[in-house]
Amino acid sequence: MAADLDDLPAMIDRLERAARDRWGDEWRIETTRYADGTAEATVIHSRGLVDPDADAGEQLHEQERLETDGEGRVLYERVHYRHGTTVDVREQEMIVDLTDA
What we know:
Helices cover 16% and strands 36% of the residues. It is of the alpha+beta class. Strand 4 and strand 5 form a beta hairpin.
């Protein structure tokens, strides 16, 4: 759930503590900052393939996730998902070249 960008450091700290308690040092945090001044953070712990013998396009991965609900509580979910695959790059351009800075 999105919260004010100013709340992001406290949100990350809360999620880090919960992640370390649950998984030690086997997790990562993904943050998203929105143009409206809000942000989201999700901790992800990957558990690997559900069925390692499945065909490549049908493989399911399992993840456990932690996120805040915007009111200080940390929520947990366990999900199965398929990796997205880029079929074709339709357009690509360099917007900013930081090597010239």
